[in-house]
Amino acid sequence: EAGPFSFGPVTWDDATWILTSSFIIFTMQTGFGLLEAGVVRRKNEANIMVKNAIDVIFGGLSYWVFGFGLSFGDSYGSNPFCGIGYFFVETSEEHMGIVFSTFVFQLSFSTTATTIVSGAMAERTKLTAYIVFSFLNTLIYCLPAHWYWASNGFLRKLGIVDVAGSGVVHLVGGVSAFVSAAFLKPRLGRYAKNNSFTNAGNPVSSLIGTFILWWGWLAFNCGSTFGISGGKWKLASRSAVTTLNASVGGGVAGVIISFTTKKRKYDVEYLINSILGALVAITAPCAVVKPWESLVIGTIGGALAIASSIVVNKMKIDDPVSASSVHGTCGLWGLLAVGLFAHNDHLENTTQGRSGLFQGGGLYLFGVQLLGGIITIVWTAVLTLVMLICIQRTIGLRMSEEDEERGADFVEHMITIPSEEEYRHTVACMT
Amino acid sequence: EAGPFSFGPVTWDDATWILTSSFIIFTMQTGFGLLEAGVVRRKNEANIMVKNAIDVIFGGLSYWVFGFGLSFGDSYGSNPFCGIGYFFVETSEEHMGIVFSTFVFQLSFSTTATTIVSGAMAERTKLTAYIVFSFLNTLIYCLPAHWYWASNGFLRKLGIVDVAGSGVVHLVGGVSAFVSAAFLKPRLGRYAKNNSFTNAGNPVSSLIGTFILWWGWLAFNCGSTFGISGGKWKLASRSAVTTLNASVGGGVAGVIISFTTKKRKYDVEYLINSILGALVAITAPCAVVKPWESLVIGTIGGALAIASSIVVNKMKIDDPVSASSVHGTCGLWGLLAVGLFAHNDHLENTTQGRSGLFQGGGLYLFGVQLLGGIITIVWTAVLTLVMLICIQRTIGLRMSEEDEERGADFVEHMITIPSEEEYRHTVACMT
Amino acid sequence: EAGPFSFGPVTWDDATWILTSSFIIFTMQTGFGLLEAGVVRRKNEANIMVKNAIDVIFGGLSYWVFGFGLSFGDSYGSNPFCGIGYFFVETSEEHMGIVFSTFVFQLSFSTTATTIVSGAMAERTKLTAYIVFSFLNTLIYCLPAHWYWASNGFLRKLGIVDVAGSGVVHLVGGVSAFVSAAFLKPRLGRYAKNNSFTNAGNPVSSLIGTFILWWGWLAFNCGSTFGISGGKWKLASRSAVTTLNASVGGGVAGVIISFTTKKRKYDVEYLINSILGALVAITAPCAVVKPWESLVIGTIGGALAIASSIVVNKMKIDDPVSASSVHGTCGLWGLLAVGLFAHNDHLENTTQGRSGLFQGGGLYLFGVQLLGGIITIVWTAVLTLVMLICIQRTIGLRMSEEDEERGADFVEHMITIPSEEEYRHTVACMT
Q: Considering only alpha carbons, which residue of chain A is nearest residue B218?
């Protein structure tokens, strides 16, 4: 009666919410692209944007072919560890509304998870290798999505709560990013002793990217009610407030940490990482915590993003956009924050009757969240490593030193930096 | 009872869908602007953005004055070739919801059709001439909109299906672009023998523009159900999947074609054109084909966009953004694809009981689509040519050679490229 | 029964409208950022983007702590001059939908008001001072919001009509901008006799910012019906048309004024200011005027924005983005335009049974609008001045001359302009 899924839109009101949210969530790809383009050196700017397009193209293809099916397939054989069904997604006229709007929404999440990794692999990965990686990356993402979100997923049965995916989307993306960055080794000269590495970039571009992500995140978290009818519009409204409040907390943390530790300067990277880290952290608990709690969760998330990126850098793991820290560390923190702060949700039973440690719910929920986090980390790390090794041994993963020096824009795309001559000619014409 | 139109929103749920879609569709203007700004040389960047603003201002003015009326006017005298009524759009409090939300939605389509042409005329058209052109261009667009979409349009009566406008919007825009580019002749030195023309541009900007268009396209195609109630939310959901799948197909085509024909390089222009070409192609059939069919339609669309742009270039017709190919060729392909792939729509009767050749519907629908395409091409080409000749003989169309050399930013807007001196001064201050 | 507010969403349909509008409105922050980044010199680009982030972070914090409460608190003690209640916004599960969606919508307005000022203070304000200012700025905004919009606000009781905030948001922002720009004094060398001040900037960036604001404005004005149910969808649809038509009028004014007064050149700043000025002007009357009236209102708004910015500049008040004129002058015009053009709204009683002078409503409504405008100007000017003096006397407001010369990007954020050396190295590698 309620259609093929135990979740998903059941009315056109829900569909309006789900689809509109999806359309806004896709704008986050523009945000990730600009964020990353602002961090890499000029010679790799176009290349990183292309990689973000590749994430949608090849990640989208594999999600349609097998990703959605492994996540949410409910045919014969679907089990707590893996969905079966909906491969090459298609359905009847009757169920088109529910199945297709759910697919589009989930696809917008899946491509986000893939895109997170592109930044960590920037400036040294062959594009052909990246294409293969982004196609296969869906596999890493879609199983956790099943465990956490499908009605028969084993973590969901245990009671895990990850409203919009601190675990499923961000922890997965962040761990993949960490493993990829470590496996790829640093960019040439990144940790050279004479400190000659120019990490110039374009902070305006990164800030615009951050802004686009910020507003897109509202649809990401609020849309995760999977509808607007019943009590869902109340949870969506709360999610909007907690998401904004968390970003406020993160931003305040970033400003204060930079001011106090960087000689009264306001480091742009710190600010960006703390805002995004806070947004990642609130993604799991957004619908089930209070505004002041989201402020606390976001503040801690912002601080963790900065601290973690310092640690990762000290380990000489070269993650140009700090994806490991922003998405990985804060993704885990978001999962755990549910175990601490979650209130029992009487409207849509998101919490399955449980609440977090600080609300008197005891350690059970915290334990489940921690367990989910650990399993997600291990699964993602192992699978990412296996894929990278396979790619390396077949088509090769890292650009040659010469190519890296020249830059991917020229080597992969035959782009030459806007000719100085033309520029001078123009100036000359004017004077 | 159902209000003034045979289509359009009838409830506030529909209005939410229609208006929200419109707002997102307008963001495509930003996308077109960036796409074009990324293709032109630096000396014409601001000018092309201004032209995109002009499209909304003067195209919007004429659409309000006469465009909407000629398209959808249903007063006395309205006939299969031309609507009458709703000039200087106004209505009663009672019908405000239906009339105004329909107008806004249609306006977002009209300005898109106009904007398509701006890229093809880039770097050599006088701004004053372009202002006149963009005001009059509405006339070219609004009659096909009547033929295809108004309840008494002659092509609609024949059974034509063009869900979101591969024909009405893109084929019209693309043919106008082709005629304009040919009429204007190439930019100075574009096909010079010594190949000295620097077509440098800013690929990052073009890619960002493409991203913005991509997500906007979802609202463009899905919003074209003209509502969300009844079976419309099902068609909208399907449209989202087919639109995304088509872009996946187009992107894959672009990647493979570039890799195989360009010595393992990934040409950014190829990628952009193939993604956009696929989106144009799926625009007509989005609600009436299956996901796998949309993948095929998009793949062919992507390939056609690239092939066509090579042919146009060989003809020495200088269309800087390949608008002729992306919107014209793929627009026609989208129309024809309906004739091949369309399934009979039992939900909202979009297909008037018919289906395409491959679904056993015979050649009738294909024939109608082809006829519609041919009529659209002839109408658009003739009218565009007449307008261009009129403009040329009165106020002049093309910039002087000297002005073209200096660049439109300086000549039309008194913009000087950011002073090198100031830049050097700043650097000096820092060191 | 209808929940805690006399306005606001009461159904999930309304919530969909309110929340989706809010998400789109937040994208205007990206627009303001780019608009401002395009106007300042390169050495202050990142800094101005950071200031826009600060507006959301610290303005958002204070709005949650006290702003929303002072605007819309309806607890014991709430009076015509000031709301009481909802400090540190929180509510019950039952009222979550209404309270939180209203808060998010209002927050998107509040941060807009704050952001307007950042442009006027550009290139010479210490970031630490700006942080304090943006936290406190909420106070300036939230009381007018109460007077105009809360059910017991004294201006509302008098019958004032300010649908989406020409007065509450823009006049407040514009007056704050004017006072701040005057108080801060001009940037170094801005009015030097030898005219050596290079106000280069990046017009493409400003135009993109304008585009983003333009489409966001649709959600801003249409969302201000505070819902979609009942007659609200009709008013929202009308608001979309009037908003677009006003921008058309403004744009036409800008084009004509520039063409006639600037030797047939099309000044980009004129165009931007006239479009935005028109949008500001239609913000108050959007739901209660006819399309052709909005064209008139917008045309006058566009002309006023340009004229006013010339006057402000002649007064040697250095407002780099013309915020005083676009938001201040046109905000006042928008308020007054209601008094002239407003039609009595029978659908939702926005106009409390009254109409404007030109509709035969006499001078009462015009008088109230004028009174509201004057009170708003005086309140904003005085409070802004008090705050600036307090900040100046404690932590200091203006950067040192040396720092201003070096640029805020370097001084506040340790950003060095992308190294010329790296650039040359890259070029060398390619050749």
A: A23
| A352-408 pLDDT, tens digit each | 999 999 999 999 999 999 999 999 999 999 999 999 999 999 999 999 999 999 999
Q: How far apart are CA B196 and CA C39, in angstroms?
A: 34
- Amino acid identity of residue B283, one-letter, is T
Question: What percentage of chain B has pLDDT greater than the value 70?
Answer: 93
- Count of CB pairs separated by less than 8 Å, A with B: 172
Residue C356: closest CA among C369, C346, C371: C369
The CA distance from A142 to A26, in Å, is: 18
Ordered by start, the domain boundaries in chain C are 12-183+214-398
Residue type, A375: I
C234 touches chain B (CB under 8 A): yes
Cα–Cα distance between B425 and B280 in angstroms, integer?
48
Q: pLDDT tens-digit profile of C158-177?
A: 999 999 999 999 999 999 99
Q: Are residues A416 and B200, on separate chains, in Cβ contact within 8 Å? A: yes
Q: For tokens 């700006």, what's the residue?
A: C130
**B302 shares contact with chain A (CB less than 8 Å):** no
Distance CA A15, CA B241 (A): 13
Give the C-alpha separation, B28 to C203, whole Å: 19
Using CA atoms of B112, B114, B115, B119 in order, give the dihedral in degrees to the nearest 10.
Answer: 140
User: What's the rounded Cα separation, in Å, for the pair B26 and B9?
Assistant: 19
d(CA B38, CA B52): 13
Which residue from A204, A230, A241 is facing C89, i.e. has the nearest CB? A241
CATH class of the C12-183+214-398 domain in this structure: mainly alpha
Chain-centroid distance of CA C20 in Å reads 19
The residue in chain A having the minimum alpha-carbon distance to the alpha carbon of residue B20 is A20
Q: Which residues in chain A have Cβ-Cβ distances shorter than 8 Å to C23?
A: 24, 215, 218-219, 222
Does the pLDDT at position A216 exceed 50?
Answer: yes
Task: Kindly indicate whether the domain formed by B12-414 is annotated with CATH number 1.10.10.60.
Answer: no
The verdict on a CB contact (< 8 Å) between B421 and C198 is yes
Binary contact (C268, B101; C-beta < 8 A): no
Say whether residue B275 is in contact with chain A using an 8 A CB cutoff: yes
Q: Which fold has domain A12-430?
A: Ammonium transporter fold (1.10.3430)
For the cut 80, the answer to whether the pLDDT of residue C355 exceeds it is yes
B52 touches C: beta carbon within 8 Å: yes
CB contact under 8 A, A23 and B218: yes
Whether A241 sits inside 8 A of C423 (CB atoms) is no
Residue in this structure with the two tokens 């406020």, named with its chain if needed = A248
CB-based contacts of B308-311 (< 8 A; 24+ apart in sequence): B309/B269, B309/B273
* Nearest residue to A266 via CA among A330, A312, A207: A207
